[in-house]
Design a protein that fits this description.
This protein has two domains: 248 residues, Beta-lactamase; 100 residues, D-Ala-D-Ala carboxypeptidase, C-terminal domain (Peptidoglycan synthesis regulatory factor (PBP3), Domain 2), CATH 2.60.410.10. It is built from nine helices and 18 strands. The longest helix has 15 residues. 25% of the residues lie in helices and 30% in strands. The chain is α+β, with helices and mostly antiparallel strands.
Length: 366
């Protein structure tokens, strides 16, 4: 099930919550460590500098493909134009059939450049149309310093991103359950094609849940990875980093040692009650609509401010009616807003067939 979180704001990056610029020394030209739930930047260096990104591009390719509506079991007949692509390859043969699922695993685990071209051509009718969808998705995710020119990440003019933008993409990928499962897979076989994940952190770092590697001569080594411990999920991105495995481990260690996950509100959690008139029930529970998941550092204080748009409810009121919000602050800086909604239906005491027993049995039935 897709997990829903409260929207968190860029205010996290200002005032008392400025991201640490030099908490961990790395070999990367640019890097960022981000909390996946909130988007809070915990550590960064040149995070908004545009650079070539190589095969971590394929995270966007996989995400757009999975959102295209195609069934992963569909059989794809390989067009001759999709074969013979330079670099990492599945060595696809013109005319062979292979499932869309196998192609996606092939581009994510073995980093097959031909698989990325085949996925793009199949899902959108042409590679060019698919690349257009990639750029539309980038805009939707707020990747303001990114532009895609192809689906595989081979060096091409106009193909670039930033460490920060790729972390935003990593966030989105973690919310796609099928993609999350694929990225965490160490090895899988399709029709005698063995696909082993290039991401060594899956074996080397406790809690790593995958993502994607990349390399071209122009970009250097690029890596997006994610790790999860004690309810805290972190996304790490390094661009042009010859020491990426060790750097990601060090950045994750810093994140998990310095910050903790805190959930001040959970979906459905009552935060108070409102009186109701013209109802068989005198009060209605008010609950949080979504989870609020925060990344909180040592010594940081979390506070909540509740605002209601109604003082009294007038029945009938459906369950899930919005009646206010909670503003959550960390050290006085606003970082989340969570809508408050009615936690149960408030029946009109004059409605036909809505005597007390009728309402009671309806409530018991859920």
């Amino acid at each position: 099930m897709k997990r829903m979180y409260a929207v968190l704001f860029a205010a996290l990056l200002v005032a008392g919550m400025v991201p640490t610029a030099a908490a961990v020394d790395t070999s990367a030209s640019s890097m960022v460590l981000m909390d996946a739930a909130s988007g809070r930047v915990l550590c960064q260096s040149n995070a908004h500098e545009r650079r070539p990104i190589a095969s971590i591009t394929k995270l966007m390719t996989a995400l757009v493909a999975l959102e295209s509506g195609h069934d992963l079991e569909e059989e794809v007949t390989i067009d001759p134009a999709w074969t013979g692509v330079e670099g990492s390859s599945l060595y696809l043969r013109a005319g062979e059939t292979i499932s869309l699922k196998a192609l996606l695993y092939g581009l994510l685990l073995r980093s097959g450049n031909d698989a990325a071209i085949a996925v793009a051509g199949y899902c959108a009718g042409s590679v060019e149309a698919f690349v257009g969808r990639m750029n539309e998705k980038a805009a939707q995710l707020g990747m303001k310093n990114s532009h895609f020119a192809n689906p595989n990440g081979l060096d091409e003019e106009g193909h670039y991103s930033t460490a920060y933008d790729m972390a935003l993409l990593g966030q989105a990928c973690l919310q796609q359950e099928q993609l999350r499962e694929m990225m965490a897979t160490k090895s899988i076989t399709f029709d005698q094609r063995v696909m082993t994940n290039h991401n060594k952190l899956l074996w080397r770092y406790d809690g790593c849940i995958g993502m994607k590697t990349g390399y071209t001569e122009k970009s250097g080594r690029t890596l997006v990875s994610a790790a999860e411990r004690d309810g805290l999920t972190l996304v790490c991105v390094t661009l042009n980093d010859p020491n990426d495995w060790a750097d990601h481990a060090a950045l994750f260690d810093f994140g998990f040692e310095t910050y903790r996950a805190e959930r001040p509100l959970e979906a459905g959690q009552p935060v108070g009650y409102l009186p109701a008139v013209n109802s068989l029930v005198p009060v209605c529970p008010i609950v949080a609509q979504y989870d609020a998941v925060l990344c909180v550092g040592a010594g940081e204080q979390v506070s909540q401010e509740l605002t209601l748009t109604k003082e009294v409810l007038e029945a009938p009121v459906p369950v899930g009616t919005e009646v206010g919000e909670v503003v959550i602050r960390v050290d006085g800086v606003e970082c989340a807003r969570v809508s408050l909604v009615t936690g149960q239906q408030m029946p009109d005491n004059l409605a036909p067939h809505q005597g007390f027993l009728g309402w009671w049995f309806q409530t018991l039935a859920g």
